[in-house]
Design brief:
The chain has three domains: 159 residues, Jelly Rolls (Sandwich), CATH 2.60.120; 92 residues, no CATH class; 172 residues, Leucine-rich Repeat Variant (Alpha Horseshoe), CATH 1.25.10. 28% of the residues lie in helices and 23% in strands. It has 13 helices and 24 strands.
Amino acid sequence: MDQPLRIALVVALAFWAVVTGPKVSAFQITLFPAAAVYDPDAKILHERLGVDGQDLHVEDFEDNELESWLKTDLEGGAGEGADQAPWVGRYTSSVANETRFGIALSGVRIFGIGVGDNDGGSERISVNGEPPINLQRLPGHAGNGVSRAYYVLVEAKSEDADIASIEFDHGFTLRFDHLIVLQKQVSRPPQEHLPRLVVDLVDGGRLVGEVSNDSVIASVGNGTRDLHPADIYSIRFVEATNHVTIILTAGEKVVGEARFSELKLRTALGQLSVPRAIIRQIRTRPRGKYQPTEKSRAGKAEAMFLADEPAFAGKRLLEWLKVDGQPTLSFGGMDGMFRPISESADVKSVAQQKAEDAIQKIGAKGVPFLVELVARGGGDARDAVKGFRVLGARAKPAVPELLSLLNEPDRMTRGYTLWALGAIGPAAEEAVPVLLDVLRCEPIATDGIPAAEALGNIGPASAMAVPIIIEKIRGRAMGSNIDC
């Protein structure tokens, strides 16, 4: 049997062994493509990473005198010029195929570093000597066939040990820059979400979205008091007049006048201008608070959710998803290439079990909100995959909307969408034709791997994936590609 075919058969067998294998790492590892977060101003870079306003230790590799707390065989002051694309300053580290960063600081909870390479390696990362994780399998590891740049952020969860060492291997001419270490994260005060507006139309239709909180919706007292969305519980329009009946958030019922001709409503479909004449009623719904770091890490200008967020036992769904001890996605090297999302060999903590029970109680009511979390990207998308894993077949109504997200240009969003489909399991059978196309036409090291994992979790309906994987890997070994 020739070598490429032998390799292909090994991978195919691993594909069908997807329901075995433990979780690889408890540390949360996130990749941010340079195109999404890069800025030569370190303050802006930190904001986009969600670590701004923190007391960071930084090494920029601008010269060969590195910080005393950093132990590494790399040197600084290398790679001057735009060709080497330093993250901050003019220089990067020296070139290496593998390296280790020892951190002689106590209580380290976050480690970050900018990485650049020439697309020639299969770099892996190991935290505190744990089994290495293949970075090619994480959303955000995007290349253009010539080079690649991304920022790696490693976060220790509450039950994790402090970060003492980070190792990279299996790389090819890697350069590193702008290393950050955070010993203790400062908790910043939460901020209010903009209220959600539910707009009922005269023809029976409904729109859901938001407007800026300084928008004036109506006035009372002959124009002496303007009302903003946060002031109003509901407002009913009297047909063919400018009069409105308003229930204020305090419960008071008043009569007033509409103060707009068109409502500028931001929706999942984009910005809409809704004429007042076609609106029958507007209801506002407060959406609680969010942490600024969550908003920054999602890479959005504003935290924006349009689907209703259900709650259980006094906690919103997103709070249950973020409970410490929740299982993380299992990433690994070739030996763990097809790890399942649906199972973990780890013993569940009490907090995790309680959170999963709460998500089960919320059930299918939470599915639209989970879809929005995937669309939002970042850590919220990862949390949404956990929710889909817990709900399994009960999340089947999400499949058509998740398939539409595979058209998104952002690779991280597509990656989490593929994992979400796999987390639903056999109930996502209708996604198989699309997933097979992704597997056939996308690079195996990018969207192809999460597509293969999703197909493996869906099960027997995905049988056609095996010959595609064999052909894909054989073609890769022999320099040919599958026609798409």
